[in-house]
Amino acid sequence: MVLDKNTAKKTAELLLQINAIKLKPENPFVWASGWKSPIYCDNRIILSYPVIRNFIREEMAKQVEALYGKPDIIAGVATGAIGIGALVADFLGLPFIYVRPEPKAHGRKNQIEGQLEPNQTVVVIEDLISTGKSSLNAVEALKESGANVKGMLAIFTYGFDVAQHNFEEKNVSLNTLSDYDHLIEQASDTQFIKEDQLNTLLGWRKNPSKWEQ
Fold first, then answer.
1. 100: phi > 0 → left, psi -120 to 50 → alpha, else beta; which?
2. What is the rounded distance in angstroms from the CA atom of residue 13 to the CA atom of residue 189?
3. From CA 141, how far away is CA 159, in angstroms rounded?
4. d(CA 91, CA 157)
5. Of 44, 66, 141, 201, which has the fewest Cβ atoms less than 10 A away?
6. For residue range 51-107, what is the model confidence (pLDDT) as tens digits?
7. How far is CA 107 from the centre of its chain?
8. What is the Cα–Cα distance from 122 to 124, expressed in whole angstroms?
9. Closest among 88, 166, 194, 78 to 128, alpha carbons compared
10. Is 124 within 8 Å of 135 (Cβ atoms)?
11. What secondary structure, in 3-state letters, does 120-185 show?
């Protein structure tokens, strides 16, 4: 769910501006899952642009407090959300931890890096939501370690039905700064894409796993 439409459109504008989101309807990307996609999102590039990085940091910090109150700890999902999660935690003056996809195979074999005490309240920061499985895996690891997870805030979501189902099934609150609908609206309003490209992008979202150019 998007909390603020103006923030959603501004975030989409900035992501397009720095090519964190690339739209190539005529020459689709192939995701690791094998899905063909006219869009590719890499929010890690935000960290290379201080002004935009600070905007995202401050908007996420504001929304963390508005949605969940001030938690005890901010957690980032490795690896994409480690940087932005640490920035949000710093802005709020809170401790930071991050969650690996799985425990390390050596050393202390940690999945959660940093200090987490039982029953501490945690808000999870994520950079991107596709199906939500890896994000929810991080939430599960935190809960198993005794954390009270208040919810998750991500920069961007594709808005897939499967992601909404997965979060509802696990009873995890998800909010995002921006989403696919606001991205397409912004790209269309600013003539970043043409009408035929818009139709392609709208068609892909209806059935991304089986989409063909």
1. beta
2. 10
3. 24
4. 23
5. 66
6. 999 999 999 999 999 999 999 999 999 999 999 999 999 999 999 999 998 876 565
7. 29
8. 6
9. 78
10. yes
11. CEEEEEEEEECCCHHHHHHHHHHHHCCCEEEEEEEEEECCCHHHHHHHHHCCCCEEEEEEHHHHHH
Q: What distance in Å separates the CA atoms of residue 160 and residue 167, rounded to the nearest whole number?
A: 11
pTM of the model: 0.93
> For residue 15, what are its two tokens?
């992501």
Q: Residue 185 corresponds to which amino acid?
A: E
Q: Which helix (H) or strand (E) holds 21?
A: strand 21-23
Q: Is 37 within 8 Å of 26 (Cβ atoms)?
A: no
Question: How far is 173 from 164, CA to CA, in rounded Å?
Answer: 10
